[in-house]
Write a structure and sequence with these properties.
Layout: H1 2-10, H2 12-21, H3 26-38, H4 44-77, H5 85-98, H6 102-105, H7 112-115, H8 117-122, H9 127-152, H10 159-190
């Protein structure tokens, strides 16, 4: 794959840019980064750092697009960055229903994973709070897929198949953490 060759040539910057641009799914970019670690092209710690930075910057871009551009602009141009109206609609419902904490939780759920940053921007959520929730979700995601790519080595392209048994427990864990967050928030409001 030509895009993966470019990632290899760029090393850490390739991981960062690959995650920011999101032309290739983040799971594949990170798994390939893990493969590059396995063959000694880059170091694991550097891959984690650049993976986290790239993952967070991609979401900040979407947040700012929602914050300054609004729904109308996103609906007009979202298709060019892989955001379709149905994704946006679902993300808006989740954001309205569950509040700011969904920015963390939704990072582990396909379809709304990227779109959730937009309603956070529409709602003018605190930028630093948005960054914090995004950052704490991007860390395990980055580590997990880099680690799988490292272990798979030359078979890094099998990452989705290998990750599949872990996705449901991770989603259940994220839902549990989010439920605890909601419970804590509701109890705090009633006292």
């Amino acid at each position: 794959m030509q895009s993966m060759n470019l990632l290899e040539e760029l090393g850490y910057i390739g991981i960062l840019l690959g995650l920011m641009v999101e032309v290739i799914p983040s799971e594949l970019v990170l798994a390939y980064g893990g493969y590059l670690v396995s063959v000694g092209k880059i170091q694991f710690i550097g891959a984690i750092c650049f993976g986290i930075i790239g993952g967070v910057l991609a979401q900040i871009f979407l947040y700012l697009l929602g914050y300054f551009g609004g729904r109308k602009i996103v609906l007009k141009f979202g298709k060019y960055i892989g955001i379709h109206e149905r994704h946006l609609y679902l993300a808006e419902i989740w954001f309205e229903k569950y509040g700011a904490g969904v920015v963390f939780f939704a990072r582990f759920i396909p379809i709304v994973r990227h779109a959730i940053s937009l309603p956070a921007g529409f709602a003018k959520m605190s930028f630093w709070r948005f960054c914090f929730y995004t950052w704490i979700a991007v860390i395990p995601w980055t580590f997990f897929f880099l680690f799988l790519g490292l272990k798979l080595g030359a078979n890094w392209q099998l990452v989705k198949t290998v990750a599949e048994p872990y996705v449901e427990p991770i989603m259940i864990g994220a839902i549990t953490v989010f439920a605890l967050y909601l419970t804590y928030s509701l109890q705090k409001k009633t006292h």
